[in-house]
Specification:
Radius of gyration: 22 Å
Oligomer: single chain
Largest sheet: 7 strands, mixed
Order of helices and strands: HEEHHEEHEEHEEEEEHH
Strand content: 35-45%
Strand order of the largest sheet: 3-4-2-1-7-10-9
Helix content: 25-40%
Distance between the termini: 81 Å
Number of helices: 7
């Protein structure tokens, strides 16, 4: 099977790796955003031979995927790489990374609808079963008619592939391009209810202490 970005990324030898593959469907383009990362502590504890091998693998697959833009991806706790590219609809149909990871990949589109359907088994995972999780997210501002996503939040639909489910992880999504969905302000800026309750309880506690102190005086 032809080497693909997802396969090579899943093969990274730093232990405890996770990967995310995010697809954003817009009016006239489809954006790919791929992240592969591990705990920063794993990187800092790796020996030079491991780091060199990691870098050689990255250079190897990049020879065939120069169109992707690569940047370091780091936070306080994780370290990795991020790859992005904007496809036309026609390019995505022919070159999608998902196409290379399923026996059957049906991507159809016109001015009114976009439809994506795959076969059951996510083949890329069989090559590197030790990878913990690959999270696939499809984002769109258009109305989603049908989806078999594991979860959804706002305008994002997410599937999680791992060693327990890769043999039965099809992706199904159908979008109505004639209707855009306006997210509620609560969905755009979700409020943490637990944090609000904790804050209220803290304020009440302070008030109780103040009142008791005044009574004692």
């Amino acid at each position: 099977m032809k080497k693909t970005i997802l396969i090579i990324l899943l093969a990274l030898i730093l232990t405890g790796c996770d990967a995310t593959y995010k697809v954003t469907i817009e009016e006239d383009k489809i954006n790919d955003d791929i992240k592969i990362y591990t705990n920063s502590s794993d990187v800092s504890n790796a020996n030079q031979q491991t780091i060199d091998k990691f870098n050689n693998q990255i250079m190897d697959w990049e020879r065939g995927y120069e169109h992707y833009k690569r940047e370091m991806y780091t936070t306080d706790t994780i370290t990795g790489y991020e790859y992005t590219y904007d496809f036309t609809y026609e390019e995505y149909d022919a070159m999608s990374e998902l196409r290379k990871c399923y026996d059957e990949f049906n991507f159809t589109y016109n001015s009114k609808e976009v439809s994506l359907n795959t076969s059951n088994e996510f083949l890329c995972h069989t090559y590197y079963p030790d990878v913990k999780n690959l999270t696939i997210t499809i984002k769109t501002d258009y109305k989603v008619l049908t989806s078999n996503a594991d979860s959804s939040k706002g305008n994002e639909y997410t599937w999680v592939v791992n060693s327990n489910n890769y043999k039965n992880k099809p992706i199904t999504l159908k979008i109505d391009k004639t209707q855009k969905v306006k997210l509620d302000e609560e969905e755009k800026n979700p409020i943490d209810i637990k944090m609000i309750l904790v804050t209220i309880l803290f304020v009440l506690l302070i008030l109780v202490l103040i009142v008791n102190k005044k009574k004692a005086a």
